[in-house]
Amino acid sequence: MLSKNRAADEDVMNQPVITLWSDANFFSPYVMSVYVALAEKGLSFTLKTVDLDGGEHLKPQWQGYDLTRRVPVLELDGFALSESSAIDEYLEDRFAPPEWERIYPHDLQKRARARQIQAWLRSDLVPIRVERSTDVVFAGVKKPALSAEGVDSAQKLIETAASLLAHGNPNLFGEWCIADTDLALMLNRLILNGDEVPQMLVDYAAFQWQRASVQRYVALSAKRAG
């Protein structure tokens, strides 16, 4: 036991200095993805915020200005990186299994599929992201009915998610992965607004939302939302 404790202490001491930059309200789904990835890896990190509403991210003195001027930004021993899926993949490579917890599937094809899902959620479904912004998820705001484009986008999300989860398991690929968190958040844009979503997807999103790392991030946004 003593040797295990010593090894754990050494791991903590050998960890690099990590900073995660978030929006001030903790409403960003992309910050959430990285926050969950860091927490699941068991990494210690400092959380800092930038005021997007006040335009702080557009000022040259902000650390992320020379990247994409968006959150999240990860700083790790002098290396700065933006774009959440790139950060998630970097963390998986930099703190690789089995020494660190896995956040992507071990199987090559499943890992590629997880990355596909992440890329799709970030590049498609624009009407959902516009008409069901994350204040629905993190602050309990209710939005009006979806537009025709929003309905089409919601149907696409529902059909795709149902196909991915047709196996009936609570996670996309057997064991949890970071794509589960990202998909659950997108579904919750609809579910938490009261939009019609099949029960199997409601159950999936609720199961994913109870993960400890997710709940810690939700608590941050809830505190800001008052």
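[next item in queue]
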Amino acid sequence: MAGSATLKLAFSVFICVAMVAPLAEAAISCDVVGDRLAICGKVGQGVPGSLEECCSNIGFVLSLPQNQADRQALCACVIAYGRKHNIDWAAVARLARVCGKTVFFPLGPDTDCSKVK
């Protein structure tokens, strides 16, 4: 009888973990993306250290996606941020190159993030 109760408890714990695990996976947060990329706007203003911090943050943001859904979400965050702040997309592309980073989606206000692989 005790073995049966232990088995039921173990199964219940397994079911709970299986249900909660997907919730624990890190989703792409547009707030985090925006906060990390905000410093990049200061690069053109000549703020000391801003280029190094911007490059570091671009690398961090580009490392967030773990799968296609994450890459599409990151794309959507970046495009929305760019639209909101009316950024110069060509300047963003140049900055990514200066930082040695490869952006895995087209940079521009008309980017269709659903096509990002």
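[queue empty]
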